[in-house]
Amino acid sequence: MITPPQQHFSARKYILVFIITLGIFALVFLFSDFLYRTRLTQVKSVEDNINQNILESEIQYALLADASCDTDESSGSNVLIGDINTLAKHLSDMENERGTNDAEVISLKKYYSLLQIKDYLLLRERAKQCGEKPLSILYFYSNKGDCADCTKMGYVLTSMREDYDKLHIYAFDYNLGLSTIETLKSLYTLDNQLPILVINRKPYYGFKTREEIEALIPELATMRATSTSATSTKTLPKK
Amino acid sequence: MDILINIPIYILLFSTLYFEVFVIVTYFEEVDQFTLIPSVPRDPETSPSVTIMVPAWNEGRTILGTVDSLLALDYPKDKLSIFIIDDGSTDDTLQVAKTFEHNPQVRIFTKPNGGKHTAVNLGIDNCTSELIGCLDADSFVDPKALQEIIPFFDNPEVMAVTPSVQIWKPDNLLRRIQAAEYMVGEFTRKIFSRLNALYVTPGPFSIYRNEVFEKIGKFAKAYNTEDMEMALRMQANHMKIENAHNALVFTVSPKTIHALYKQRVRWVSGFLKNAFFNYRFMFFKREYGNLGALTMPFAFSSIFVALFFYVLYVKNIFTFISVKYLEYTALGFHFGFPHGFDWFSVNLEFRRLIIYLLFFCTIFFVLMGARMVMRKFRISRDMLYFLAFYGFIAPFWLIRSLYNLLTTKEAHWR
Q1: Cα(A123)–Cα(A34) distance, rounded to whole angstroms?
Q2: Whether residue A195 has a cis bond before it, omega within 30° of 0
């Protein structure tokens, strides 16, 4: 049955719809906040996990001293590198979503930077104890808009992280205002010409291609050869 | 600085969500009016007399089908007249029209070219029936269309009834996008009619009481959007306009992007100019009901909303391309292995969530429109094309229409 259309302006309906819309806005806001808190908790949990791993490794080295050199470096460290990489990606995603000025993201980044430095020190300690050469890159970047090549440099290092599981890459926000980062800057006498890579304690300024970095760390060539050989063996047909 | 950018964005998102909630609330209030059951055939004795005018300018290719579809209407022959009005065509429109000259239902008029409104007005001058309709010479009616429209005139307050206009045989991407767009359009038109807030009586097969023209005058040029201006004039005079969603009318839509662009610039420019120059007194006035309070202001502001979303859309595409370009300059062609879904990479920030919500509302409108036209809930290719591409092409005519409004430049028919 056809009924006449709603005749008049109904202020009641307009107010009701306003309240519903406001309610939806509030719910979406709360939901968004809930998701953000969940992500924060997850990031904090990864950070705690890394912290615990580092502590375990420190204790292990202290207890076993030289004997710990017999253990495969990759076994425990890979988990740690994996966790640090995950943390780096999550922090980058959160930074994209919340902006670079978000207080919580900055706080998490500071803690992440400290964890990286702890891992770096641990790596150097092990290298010293075991007479190995640490495979590490310290990368200093800025996301304040004053480093045109930092994004590109990030892509190169991310791809290297994926390909070389024993390569430790530590990324530091040059402008984070963390005293330990300032110490690293003065330790390696860094100028403000970003991006900066520190390889074997020597700083390199400006964008570097993957090939250029590989040339600076010759050990990577053998790692790649081993990896390629392993892959080839895997693909051999069975008799 | 962030506040200066964010506050307008929040207002825009809130007002868009408000409008969509209003539409959804109205739908659930009026859900029984969205029935798909066809109307019961009337006793011919009680059927009012109807004249359908077919104004035509260089429509020789389509007018035959248009008139044939009118002659096939399921309506008493003695109550239905058809006026073919040749508006000074330079093609064979008049010759084709003359093939109907021996049909007692058909009268043929010809006049020097003066624009669609002059052709329709000539028909009104010669018309004595109770109801007067108009059908563009590039449109075709479903045989039951008039039977679906007439019952709405049982309410003496209803002065005009609009049909459900759909696309005739969509055969390319552009027409498929328009097909889904027209389905959404039918859903919103029905909602607006329930709010007594329609501001267009489309050229294809809108039917008026004869007395409308006696009371408020005939069609005006109105920036080449006479159907829009007539609806606004009726609303300004508190005349009710209904929508018969089961009355299907099909129109041949623009096939090329250029033709579509010209058509839409004419429509949007016409709306903006009519609304802004002649009917802005109705904005935010309670005496004009939901039209003044909601649909007209929103239709006006929706142009800016659409442009906002367009900027966002283009920005995202640009960001994606620049990221890929940077990746290429950094690594060359490097294909890393995908690491599976990571929910951290999905942006779930508040404004994004509201935009996702608005997108779901649009999908709901598309589905409701499809239900009304295709008689079932169905996800079609047309809908996917509409959702993927419409937001990308529409801003071009919106920007041009805004330019026309600011420069008072006129948009032409063809």
Answers
A1: 37
A2: yes
Pick the CATH number of A135-239 from 3.40.50.2300, 3.30.499.10, 3.40.30.10, 3.30.190.30: 3.40.30.10
Q: Please compute the mean of the pLDDT values over residues B75-79 and round it to a whole number.
A: 94
- Position A64 scores a pLDDT of 59
Domain at B41-139: CATH code: 3.90.550.10
Domain boundary assignment for chain B: 1-34+155-335+342-414, 41-139
ipTM of the complex model: 0.86
Using the beta-carbon criterion (under 8 Å), do A90 and B21 form an inter-chain contact? no
Q: Which CA distances in Å does A170 have to A118, A157, A180, B281, B403?
A: 11, 10, 13, 65, 53
Low-confidence ranges of chain A (pLDDT < 70): 1-8, 57, 60-81, 223-239
Query: Which chain A residue has the Cα nearest residue B34?
Result: A2
Give the per-residue pLDDT at A78: 58
pLDDT recorded at residue B213: 95
Question: What is the pTM for the complete model shown?
Answer: 0.80
Smallest CA–CA distance from B354 into chain A, residue: A28
Residues 6+ apart with CB under 8 A from B114: B87, B88
Q: Calculate the CA B378 to chain-centre distance.
A: 21
CA distance A194 to A207: 8
How far apart are the C-alpha atoms of B234 and B133, rounded to whole Å? 15
Structure tokens given for A221:
């060539």
Nearest CA in chain A to B240: A5
Query: B196 and A2 in contact by Cβ < 8 A?
Result: no
Q: Is B25 on the interface with A (CB under 8 A)?
A: yes
* Opening angle at CA A31, ends A29 and A33, nearest 5: 70
